[in-house]
Amino acid sequence: MPRRFREDEEERIRWALMGAGRDIMGLRGARKTSIDELVRSAGIAKGSFYRFFSSKESLALQIMAEWEREFHQEIARLFEETSPHGIGPTAELLRTVFLELFPRKVMESGIQALMDPEEIAYLAQRADADQRRMMDLQDVRLFEQLRPLFVSAGLQTALPDHQIIAGLRLLFEAGLRAMRTVGETELRAMRTVDETELTSEHFHAAFLTLLRGFLSEAFRPAPTTSEAGQAGSSP
């Protein structure tokens, strides 16, 4: 019977596995990584792995969840710094989040392979019920963080919360695709100049159009103080 780990040992091993996962799966993705590689890098026995994670995919999802929590703080900070007001400025800020801030933070973290759209789709398919709930909860928490920031931008919800949350997830996935396409487009532009080809500017502009359309449906301008006062005083 394997011995029980002390609490400090469990914490150390868990973080060693998280670190190994970021280093290896962040570079190659979960599909191309074996548990043998992970435990060897973490310096633990293979049997010990399953006392912390049910699979390499479970470890990958936990790494992504930890990173997303930090990234959500970055989004909130950007909202507070720029103080957008109205649909247009808010859409422009979200375009910056999806197509500029997100790829920069992913590059800095070294988990590019885990954030590849195909890798995310693979992990979502392999996720169990608890892991899917964790992914949904991440999105709910992000919206709860963003809600007061949307209010400060002069916007109030016009759709049910979960419909907006689902829309934001779809936009995130579209942003991932756009980010990848923009990168490929820029590489192609370095090799050839053809005025008939789509450029990265076209994709940025198209994504901004998607954002504006979604925000226009999901939110409406909040009434000003004077408008609210007039509504309250009307017979």
How are the elements arranged and paired?
Elements: H1 7-28, H2 35-42, H3 46-49, H4 56-82, H5 87-109, H6 117-126, H7 129-152, E1 155-157, H8 161-191, H9 200-218, E2 219-221, H10 225-233
Antiparallel strand pairs: 1-2
Helix pairs in contact: 1-2, 1-4, 4-5, 4-7, 5-8, 5-9, 8-9
Protein model, in words:
A two-stranded antiparallel ribbon has the order 1-2. It is 75% helix and 3% strand. The longest helix is centred in the C-terminal third of the chain and has 31 residues, at 161-191. The radius of gyration is 22 Å and the shape is globular. The mean pLDDT is 86. The protein has helices spanning 7-28, 35-42, 46-49, 56-82, 87-109, 117-126, 129-152, 161-191, 200-218, 225-233; strands spanning 155-157, 219-221. By secondary structure, the protein is mainly alpha-helical. It has ten helices and two strands. Helix 4 packs across helix 5 and helix 5 packs across helix 9. It has one domain (56-222). The N and C termini lie far apart (77 Å).
